[in-house]
TrEMBL record:
Domain BHLH: 7-56
Name of protein: BHLH domain-containing protein
InterPro entries tied to this protein: bHLH95_bHLH, bHLH_dom, HLH_DNA-bd_sf, IND-like
Any one Gene Ontology molecular-function term assigned to this protein's record: DNA-binding transcription factor activity
Entry GO terms, CC: nucleus
PANTHER family associated with the record: BHLH DOMAIN-CONTAINING PROTEIN, TRANSCRIPTION FACTOR HEC3-RELATED
Tagged with keyword Nucleus: yes
Length: 146
């Protein structure tokens, strides 16, 4: 019998070096995906990446439930009809979907929203949330007499 030769033995230090290199490559890829350009240690970067992913998940959930068209007058329309001049750099001419696209594609806007723990909501969603909160308060008052 001619058995195939055994695979070459790779020293532990070589395996460890390859693992470190792989981890370093993945860390660099993760850093490139984040909207900020600041340097940070590995633990901080992973913590910030986790928070950013949670923010994105919340934002996606909100955007998926957002109505495509608005039944409300936009804030920019209110401001444009006011007695002062406001320069929105043409954003006031965009429809809701276009404005959301600009916002979502802006790393600066995403970083600012995430750092402040904010998400984009449609006016209709906020009205619905307020109505639900009012109903809950009324129900609690009815049940507990507070």
């Amino acid at each position: 019998f001619n058995a195939p030769p055994p695979p070459p033995i790779i020293p532990h230090s070589e395996l460890a070096r390859k693992r470190r290199q792989k981890r370093s490559d993945k860390t660099r890829c993760l850093q490139k995906l984040m909207p900020w350009d600041k340097k940070m240690d590995m633990a901080t970067m992973l913590q910030e990446a986790y928070k950013y992913i949670r923010f994105l998940q919340a934002q996606v959930s909100i955007l998926q439930s957002m109505p495509i068209t608005s039944s409300f007058v936009s804030t920019t329309q209110h401001l444009n009809n006011a007695s002062f001049e406001v320069d929105f750099a043409g954003l006031e001419r965009l429809n809701r979907q276009q404005l959301l696209q600009v916002l979502i594609n802006s790393p600066m806007a995403q970083t600012m929203l995430c750092s402040q723990g904010l998400c984009v909501f449609a006016t209709e969603q906020l009205v619905s949330l307020n109505k639900a909160k009012e109903r809950k308060t009324m129900l609690q008052q009815f049940l507990f007499g507070n």
